Amino acid sequence: MKKIYLACTAPPYRPVAATHDWVKGQPDWIWAELNSSHSAPLLAPNRVADKLLEMSAL
């Protein structure tokens, strides 16, 4: 099963910075960024879904 981490980066959400560093160091995780706030699943659910679908094709 693929593991995808979608980081919402605008603005950066500091409480998850250590998690971002950890995920980036894992060879079995796919890292992706979305230029949106940490509230993207609520405020832009279509953008989140589109990005996850795009990444799942890798």
UniProtKB/TrEMBL annotation:
Superkingdom of origin organism = Bacteria
Name of the protein described by the UniProt record: Putative esterase
What organism is listed for this UniProt entry? Advenella kashmirensis (strain DSM 17095 / LMG 22695 / WT001) (Tetrathiobacter kashmirensis)
Species lineage, top-down?
Bacteria, Pseudomonadati, Pseudomonadota, Betaproteobacteria, Burkholderiales
